[in-house]
Request: fold
Amino acid sequence: MPYDHQSIEKKWQKKWEESPESQGDDSDQDTLYHLVMFPYPSGSGLHVGHVESYSAVDMLTRMERMRGKKVLFPMGYDAFGLPAENYAIKTGVHPAQTTAKAIETFRTQLKSIGLSFDWDREVSTADPDYYRWTQWLFLLFFKNGLAYRAKSPVNWCTSCTTVLANEQVVSGACERCDSEVIQKELEQWFFKITDYAERLLTGMDTIDWPEKIKAMQRNWIGKSVGATVDFSVVDHDATVSVFTTRPDTLFGATYVVLAPEHALVDQLVADESRTDVEAYRVAAGKKSALERTELQKVKTGVFTGAYAINPVNDEKIPIWIADYVMVTYGTGAIMAVPAHDERDFEFAKKYKLPIKKVVEPPVLQEVMNPDVGISNGAQTQVKIITDCFTSDGTAVNSGLLDCLKTNEAKEKINGWLTENGLGGAKTTYRIRDWLVSRQRYWGAPIPIIWCESCGPQPVPENQLPVVLPNDVDFKPTGESPLVGSKTFHDVTCPACSAPARRESDTMDTFVDSSWYYLRYCDPKNDQAFADREKIDNWCPVDLYVGGAEHAVMHLLYARFFSYALHDLGYVGYEEPFVKLRNQGLILGPDGDKMSKSKGNVVNPDEIVSQYGADSIRLYEMFLGPLEDEKPWDTKGVVGVRRFLEKVWKLQDIIVLEPVEGLETQLHKTIKKVTGDYEELRFNTAIAKLMELTNAATSAGKIGRDQYAVLVQLLAPLAPHLSEELWELLGHKESIFTSTWPTFDPKKIVDTQIEMGVQVNGKVRGSVVLAPDASEDEAMAAAHADENVTKYLDGKDVMKIIYVPGRILNIVVK
RNA sequence: GGGCGAGUGGUGAAAUUGGUAUACACGCUAGCCUUAGGAGCUAGUGCCGCAAGGCGUGAGGGUUCGAGUCCCUCCUCGCCCACCA
Reply:
């Protein structure tokens, strides 16, 4: 009987559907929560990249369940979002229809690869029963001061006349129509993620995440320790406050720069400079974010005609505006110290501004290698960029700071600034509050009602969800399509009953995905987003797997939500995802990123029908380490398919008694495979299973119980085939109700091992020995090897290094 | 400019963490079988060399009995961030 993947996979998928494996009730003690990033249900269906991460976690989940753990492993859909809405603009087909159809397709595809999701817990963010709680969470944040409304510059597409999210701006242009994106000042809704900047930073020390993701989040949060310094303005009743990380260089400040958008510019600018300053501000405002950052080669600026007083030495220094200073960072103003900052140096040279040296570089010093204890001759050369020195050193020309090292000088000047009420130590963060409102249709409506007299009022909880209306025109106008819906827009104020209007913006879809893993814990609950006990039973998530592209968006937002919900008493922990792993991109066969335009997209359906679900699962895991980028090679699928066929054929050579010669290898395989699965190292686990299969094939026989163990080890990877073989072995119950095999430590000890013999460090032969053989025995064996003795003849043995079981090295002269 | 990571056969990749480099698989070569095969089986396959032997993990140094692995100096590639004061 040949291995017929199609009938086997159909048969078992049907059985799993009819009697899904119990995932345990919510009061179980021995629980794990395995999570994969839920997909956006795109019209093009499941991608091989989805298969990669879902298969990996499915395998670990199946093993843990066989080891007696209750594992929550849910799936859902991140169903709101732009593509469906854009499709509606083009075709008039309602996003709800497009999305529902795509979800159908995804579900069918996911089931076709035999993933053991708990389908009872499936969620969709576009479902009113889901977004009702997204809205509820918005109101929770609103009532607790974590959601607020403010004016802010946002990305504006001139052609689509609509706001774009940062991620929808590609190289300064609209991703949809490729036209220019400019900055526009609009009033928007924000979440106060900045309140959590420090905790989001320090919390990372407690979680097992890839260093790369942590680094990206740290960089995004952008903590910077320094000081503020207040400069009074000559002939004006005004103070310019600047932020600097080098307060120790205050004596070297020779001018002050404000961002063009800085609020004080209007007040300070001298009449004779007004025309120039205005022209510069207009020009800067027109520049896109792209131009302002990428055309950084040339710095430009304009003198305002005003002067500031350096508080530490009473020097009168000019105030400039320049767009190399960002209004959004620090105080939007800097003190320029050209002698010790490259940007200021460049600017000062261009505009002939004075450069004053206040830090002396340290002298050259010899560095001792602490490991060796002797000088290795390496030296640290101080970095001198022509006349600009940016490293630490010793203060000079700095009055009270003279002769102090940079660190000491910082401390001293900060104290002085504080004492004199002129500023002092200050830490800033680069992260900005999260802009969550979108002038879009296909998202969760923001549950706020605007009243002339009462201001923004939360929609009463018993009126949630605020359901998306259907009487809308999707054509972009610059306003949310919801404005056009009379049934939606015109309401009464919940506080005073006066006529009022409903907020017409919807929420960023990242709000939906910031809490979805909580909904899985209790997906049918209509009293709360989830029951606290159920959350605490499963959460935090033990293992989270998904793409690295979400490093500073979803993964940061979800952490913020978790911290906020913790503080408000809704969850019992701060960090939501204890362990995170990123799957590497699967590239096209040509080594390029898969894309429709390149025509190198591999459709998993075709692989499933031709080779089988078990083969595609196994193949994607066998490709290489989960976290690496790997090119797809359809020919490689043949290899794992052959392996499955070999396993299938082993049925023909089953014997009743265990085959002695396979016993050690079997137990070593149990050990290796179990450990590898735990670490998500499926490629080496599969290789080990192949070796065992090859060994059994060569031996021409395998014991019935030995075969059963092999099938069990294979079960998480190739669930359909393993179920079938398990049944053929005479079992009535699913293989996944069986107990995961354990190895016998006594059986993994080799009685004989092959060991290399080196002469002067070069391998010259090998000997077969007991692993605990004595040095004399090892030497005797080595002398019996003529290739070894050839190199020993006529030489004196100086030294013998013998590491039992590892190596014998004979040093001769 | 900053951060993270990687360079091993023709290809995807292994290497018990300092102990016989290239496991496993693809591909390729030869042979067998077959009407045929994008099927199966057997053997071979790092490089140079007829051989003995030599050389081999991006390059060059170092430590060590022994280095893909540790240390130093470089080179190349990938990803992310970037006028952040």
Summary: Confidence is low (pLDDT under 50) at residues 364-385 of chain A. Residues 48-66 of chain A form the longest helix (19 residues).
